Automatic annotation (TrEMBL), chains A, B:
Organism: Nocardioides endophyticus
Every HTH marR-type domain range: 11-58
Name of the molecule in the record: ROK family transcriptional regulator
Family of this protein: Belongs to the ROK (NagC/XylR) family.
Superkingdom, taxonomy of origin: Bacteria
Amino acid sequence: MRHSLAGRAESPMQARILAQLRDEGALSKAQLADRLQVSRTTVAAEVARLAELGLAQEAGPAASRGGRRSTLVDLSPDIRFVGISIGATGMSVGVTDGRLTVLATRHRTSDIRQGPEIVLAAALELVREVMAEVGVDQVMGAGIGVPGPVDFNRGVSVSPPIMPGWDGYPVRDAVSRELGCPVMLDNDVNVLAVGEQHAGVAKGAQDFLFVKIGTGIGCGIVIDGELYRGVNGCAGDIGHIRVEDFGPTCACGNTGCLEAFSGGAALARDAATAARSGRSPALAALLSEKGELSAADVGIAVSQGDAQAVQLIRESGRHIGQVLAGLVSFFNPGLIVIGGRVTGLGHALLAEIRGVTYRRSLPLATGNLPIVLSELGDEGGVIGAARMISASVYAP
Amino acid sequence: MRHSLAGRAESPMQARILAQLRDEGALSKAQLADRLQVSRTTVAAEVARLAELGLAQEAGPAASRGGRRSTLVDLSPDIRFVGISIGATGMSVGVTDGRLTVLATRHRTSDIRQGPEIVLAAALELVREVMAEVGVDQVMGAGIGVPGPVDFNRGVSVSPPIMPGWDGYPVRDAVSRELGCPVMLDNDVNVLAVGEQHAGVAKGAQDFLFVKIGTGIGCGIVIDGELYRGVNGCAGDIGHIRVEDFGPTCACGNTGCLEAFSGGAALARDAATAARSGRSPALAALLSEKGELSAADVGIAVSQGDAQAVQLIRESGRHIGQVLAGLVSFFNPGLIVIGGRVTGLGHALLAEIRGVTYRRSLPLATGNLPIVLSELGDEGGVIGAARMISASVYAP
């Protein structure tokens, strides 16, 4: 097994060099000096120190640009990060290298309601599996996303409506103790937004929203290239925005919340009602076969041409679109990425979301606003979580 | 008459010195050196240059701190800015000094629908009056707010629903030509937010919303101390967020928009309906007396104990609260300031807005969230507009 017992960066300049290498790959010292607007001498000194810390290394001569040939610098090939993305009904775990390329990944179903001990133990088991697969017994850091509000500074989950037992649980410290490395905790939509920004459809986007439609519904907000967390760290909690005065009771205690109409749990509930009412032959057949229905079953019924199932998805998309239209008017983002398990239900959902959002927002804000599906799926959470901790490890 | 033909700041350090003096008042060179973390020699050199530019000057010995006595530096007493805040039904104009203290101000009613030539001519007439009152024939710059979307970089108003004739009109260049000074154009809520941040209840706030409830409804967004304008400059356009699927037709063409329920124009419309229906004796009396009703008349009816008028204000506040609750969930601000003419209707409106917002948002986001009325009123727009242009003149 290979060890990576490297230190953290010691100066802002070192952190900037590491971030450049992470985001662009190997660069010559001359290129680094250009990009950071410092002298080659400064770059050479900082790279030498980063090599001592086990974070970067020289990687042979760079291609000639004419004049003196420069030396390529790359991240240490030994850097490994762990990304853990925990949703309400499943988790993804992976190991990445220093550039956040996923080297090994695992996904399994899980139930967030089982509480932090059981869920984190399952996550750590997956972490050990992927670490063994890539042959390391130590990583430089781990990022974790959980499906609810997080006190980012304390590394603790806070009064999460769909996460009984997690309130105040010291997730960060517990995982840090187990893995023996620095850990960062954030909510899953922030982690997914960062992943999409690093390696997905939001690559290079400066102001965008990542909307996750899973069991619950949440939103990651990126402003000027950086995550916006709000004053209490709970920005983006759009699942509890009102769409109607009346409607199903939400986990938060209110009625008429978006999540209670359009989240995966709501879709499963409405599918069961449709099945029992006799309005949906396909869902009725699935219910009698399985004993219960999930949001995914609505997708199956849609693929079988079930009109009622299509109607359920359209209704869901309509309410999501109504909320997104409001956010577009308020926030005027440059891009909206839709992710989460419910997006696996096919194009009817995206079509309805787009239609309502474009129709209900002012033309100036939507004239050039792409609304697209996430490309990364589960891996986005792993990459985002790894990127979050990489930023902390690379920073001084 | 006194001339101020000063230049702009030439370096970021000069801009930082001017911003310190604007926001804190006269400071000694030693204090400036401390705050900007540079040597006294650097401060002395930059202050000397600012004096040549007519922007700052020495202002006598500073109080002794022990050791060598330092020299006080202050902004030039000749600096004058103009702030112009144009609303849908009225405008405020003022002249400020370099610290944005309002030296003279005028307010008059006006109708934005008369188009840019007539409205801007009226504003310029007021500008000349206030300039004459304070005895200057030249100012260093002017800021303007208008009640609709603005292309900030081009200085042009853009397809404003309540501003027929303004689409694409070169407001900035037209006013700049008339006044012979640099001009900045923004929408009125951004200007009001900046004014409130400089001299009102939002002083020192880093992340807050300024919600204007006038004829229309809009929102200025401040993130990390800076205005957030969105990708197309139209962030904060919350008047067209849906609150119901059906309802009165809005100026934007949709139905169910917040503004069509709760703006000043909507309130006037509903007041007339209530008067004609016989449900409101007070409003009926006001209507027969005046021939038409305004939002302010609802306030008069409330003060006369008219139950129907109170009900109108409660309904208005309820819809505003529903939208603000959604924005609190999404944005998690540290403060919400409510301004605009409709806030003159008394405490029933604020009470209803607060009640609904607090009830419909997650506790984590509202635990420590003040929702308060603007303190500055019309003067906030003058100060905000002046501050906007001061930032541009002081910057290199």
